[in-house]
Structure formats: structure tokens, C-alpha cells
Amino acid sequence: MKRLAPLLATAGLMATTVPLLAATQASAAPAEYLKQKPSWQRCSPDLPASYECATIKVPLDYRRPTGPTIDLALSRMKSENPAKRHGVMLSNPGGPGGSGLDMPLMMNEAMPKDVRDQYDLIGFDPRGVGASSPVSCGLTEEEQNFLRPYRPESFPSDVDWARTVADKCQEKAGAVLPHITTRNTARDMDAIRTVLGERKISYVGYSYGTYLGSVYTQMFPDRTDRFVLDSGVDPQRIWRGMLQIWASEAEPAFTRWTGWAAERSGEYRLGDTPKAVSDTFWGLVARADREPIEFEGLKLTGDDIRGARALFFYPAQATPVVVALKAAAEGTPQPDPSSVADVKRLITTGSAAGPAPKPATGRTPEPPADNGTAVFLSVVCGDTGNWPRYTEQYERDAAKDKARYPLYGDFVSNVMPCAFWQRPVEAATPMRTKANVLTVQNEWDSQTPLASGVGLHRALKGSRMVLVAGGEGHGVYLADPNSCANAPVNDYLTTGRLPAGNVTCQNPPAAPQQRESLTPQKPLPIPAGPGRF
After folding, report:
1. CA distance linking residue 394 with residue 357, whole number of Å
2. Helix (H), strand (E) at residue 116
């Protein structure tokens, strides 16, 4: 708890300990849209009949209600116990750019019956995503790679890439992308509420979905019911600061890993002190910078190895990866051939959680290949105007942060297409209105680190926080069936009563096979890649 104390004290998080267990008006949708009645139909013959889909229309630009419209794809699974039904629960899996249509399917399986009975579960693809009038910039796979290491010799080409991506997005979808923002998605959520005939909505949002939920509480406070915001985005850091937090918070995770590996030096032989383990790792990076390390058909540079920073939030997963890389660099046989495929995936994706499950919505056709990236850029560039407009600042910041946070600092401070993006159509949403919501956080979350989760809780006056001390992984409630956070979340969703104070709990020890697994399985489609929230 030493590491937690400074953060928790500032956020009031020491209150309870459980042992081991808007700049502009909201502008809601106009009356003609709110008279719509969704035409619910079975989503797919291959999926349960209770899983229904529909489409409604909403304005592209809420300031021009009689202008162009876009589709919103909805899904639902109704409560099977009308006597206990409390209302509707919307959800979002993260992204920005993640499909949410299949969230009801996932939550229906994972949610306890006494909670499940209270809600019609409502999924939706946010505007521009998947089946909701999907957007595209026509980007190649290489152009979608927006986390680029900084080197002085390659910076001009990075600037050319960023400008090219922004220009392609403007050319292909310039009339639409300025309206693919969090505030407009919150307005869409309120339109969904109205066409469903509900006075309020409840909500479970993960990662980016926590920011979307936060914005809704500020724009529509009187329509906010029971909100769970899991794995928090700090509203004060959107969005460049949320990228940069990946670098600053990777450093304590790396330090924790070196201690973990040093304690097991007899098994892994990476060094018998944290410094020796660190030296082994940075020696591999330097070796790969001189000459790429050949590993399972890949040629890994030092930048490739540093780019897997998310691994170090999972010491039991990171250590075999480094052992395998060390063996490859030395030209010796892999220590555990059965895990080579997992190691290859981990080093190439930087994720210990595996790819998010492909949505099982039954909807066709498939969205454009760059749909997720186009939406991601639309939101992170269009939500706020605080991106630097001068490339010189990106170069200075990348060089400085590479020295300050050597594992990942240059990746997240390097130039982005946002430097050349259209100016936002409205300002970001200030967090001023009291929000009686529940935030949930693992201590060792790679995508929305602890400092970010605490920042969300601090920004939402009236919120309570459930923190899993020592908890690893991105996504807590229903993502980990054994999490000690599930009980207080279920209680809140069942009763509507927040805990009396903030809650800090610890999970029971994991079984060895679960603890050592390279690919923890999660039932919910929470984005797992290194470049998503």
C-alpha cells in the first residue's frame, strides 16, 4: 500500500478498506427524431432470439437539426423479470471506436441474476462506428500506426505521415469527422433514452466509455441514474495527456517488474537484483538497436521491444517474454517452445490481455478496415483544441520525454495527425456538476493507469471509487469474475446506493495456472491493444 498512499490520500480513498475480498448547451435531439419507435428484430438467426437489433436516425450536427442525418445501430436484451425491472442500462466497451452492439450478449452472460433482472440491456455502436454510419479515412495499415518512436533522423517523415493522415481524413470524410465527438455521442445516448421512453438511463462504461459516461453526467445530470465507470480516463488529461500517461506510469510498472523477476532469479536468470534485471533488459534494447534480434520470423529493434511497455504491468507475463528475447539474442533454444506463439503475439501487440473478441452482432457488411482508427482520431483530435499546432513542440517534447521516461516517453509525445486536424466545433466538457456515480479501478492497469482513474474520481464530485489494490488488467467489473470489486458494484447496481466511502480491496490469491497465464481470458470486449482506451 506504500505506493497507493499518496494518490489515495489526495482522492479520499483511504475511507474504507475491505480485506481480501459543458462549454455549450446540451442540445438534445429535436422532437421529430424523438418520436421514432425502434423496429426491433432478431439480430441474427445464429444468435439468441432475445437479442434484438434496431436502427434510429439522429442529426449529424445537433446545431442543424434539419440537416444531414446518420444511423445509430442499437441492440437490446430485455429483462426477463418485469416485476423487478428498474430501467435500461446502456454500455460502452471503450475505444474510442469500439463496437458496443454485442455488449448486451456479453453482460447477459456475466452479470448476476439479481442485477440482470433489473435492466433491459441496451447496446449501441457509437456514431461513426461499425453499423452506425461507419466512417473511413481510406488509411493503409501502416498509416494507422500512430505510436511512433522519436529519432531525429526520422522526425521529418513522421511529420509527413501525420500531415498525410490528416489530409486524407479531411478529403474523404471532412464533412462528417468534426461531428464524431464525445459530446455528440452523449447526445446520441440521450436520444436513445428518449426513443425508448425512459426518464433516466443507467450505464456501464469501460476505459474511453468512462469519459463518455462522465460527459453524459455533466450534459444531462437529471437523466443520469446508476452509472459505473470502470478503468477511468482522467477528464483533465484528454487527450494528449492520456497518451502521455502511458509513458509516465510505465516506469513504476517496470520497476515493479524488475523486483518481481529478481526475486525469481533462480528460475528466470535475468539478474538477482532489480538493477541487474533492468540492465539485462536495457542491454537487449541496445543489442537490438545495433542489430535486430531475430525471433520467430521477426526482426525486432530496440524500439519494437520498448513498444511492448504494456507487458510490464503483468510481471508474470513479461518475464517469459524477456527470457525468450534474451535466448533469441544469444542464439540459444527457446526455454519454453510451447509458449513461443504467445510470446510472439505479446511482443508484437504489446498486450498481455489478448485481442478483444470480435463482435458477434450478426450485422453485415463489415465496416471499413480503418474504421476504428478514423473514429479514434476524430474523437481524440476533435474533442479538445489543446493539441500543439507547431511540429517543433512535438519534437522538443518527444526528445525530453524519451530521456525522462525511457521505456515509452517518445512514443506518446511524438507528432500526431491532431497537429493538422480541423479545429474542434465546440469546447471540451467541464466537470462541474455533482455526479453520484461509482468508479472502479485496478491498481496495475496499463491503458488507464491508477493516476488516471484517481483523476476521474477526483473530477466527478460526489463519486465513490472502488480500487483493487494489486489488481492487474484493463477492465474490472465482469471482466474478472473473481475481482473483489464485483460485490460493491453489484450492490450499487441493485440498490442504487453508493458505498458510504471509497473502497479499497484485494483479490484472493490466483491459482498458479491463472497467475502465470500469458493470455488471461476476459468475457467482455474491452479493447486490449497498446493504442486504445
Report:
1. 35
2. helix 113-116
Query: How would you classify the pairing of strands 293-295 and 224-230?
Result: unpaired
Give the other-Cβ count within 10 Å of 25's Cβ.
Answer: 9
CB of 462 closer than 8 Å to CB of 434: yes
Contacts of 11 (CB under 8 A, 6+ apart): 454, 457, 458, 465, 502
At residue 520, what is the residue type? P
C-alpha dist (Å) from residue 346 to 236, 351, 352: 31, 6, 6
DSSP assignment string, 166-194: HHHHHHHHTTTGGG-SHHHHHHHHHHHHH
- 462-484 b/e with 16+ CB inside 10 Å = b? ebbbbbbbebbbbbbbbbbeebb
Q: What would the DSSP string read from start to end of 317-386? A: HHHHHHHHHHHHHHTPPPS-GGGHHHHHHHHHH--SS-PPPPP-----SPPPTTHHHHHHHHHHHHS-S-
| 224 vs 217: CA distance, rounded Å | 6
Question: Any idea what DSSP says for residue 418?
Answer: G
d(CA 412, CA 180) in angstroms, rounded, equals 23
3-class DSSP state of 70: strand
Catalytic residue list contains 207: yes
- pTM of the complete model: 0.93
Q: Each residue of 317-376: pLDDT tens digit?
A: 899 989 999 999 998 876 665 555 655 666 655 554 544 455 565 666 789 999 999 999
Residue 516 · residue 318 · CB < 8 Å:
no
Q: Please state the separation of Cα 505 from the chain's center in Å.
A: 22
Active-site position among 75, 136, 207, 378 = 207
pLDDT digits (tens, 9 = 90+) for 474-497: 999 998 888 999 999 999 999 999
Residue of 383, 410, 445, 480 marked active site: 445
202, 474, 480, 483: the catalytic one is: 474
Closest CA to 216 of 120, 90, 125, 122: 90
8 A C-beta contact, residue 231 and residue 468: no
Dmax (CA) of the chain: 70
Contact 494, 114 (CB under 8 A): yes
354 in Cβ contact with 312 (< 8 Å):
no
Distance CA 418, CA 117 (A): 44
Helix, strand or coil, per DSSP, at residue 13: coil
The SS3 assignment for 45 reads coil
Q: How far apart are CA 165 and CA 96, in angstroms?
A: 17
* Helices first, then strands: H and E counts in the chain: 20, 13
Cα radius of gyration rounded to whole Å, the chain: 23
Q: Using CA atoms, how far apart are residues 453 and 77, in angstroms rounded to an integer?
A: 30
Q: Are 457 and 465 in contact (CB under 8 A)?
A: yes
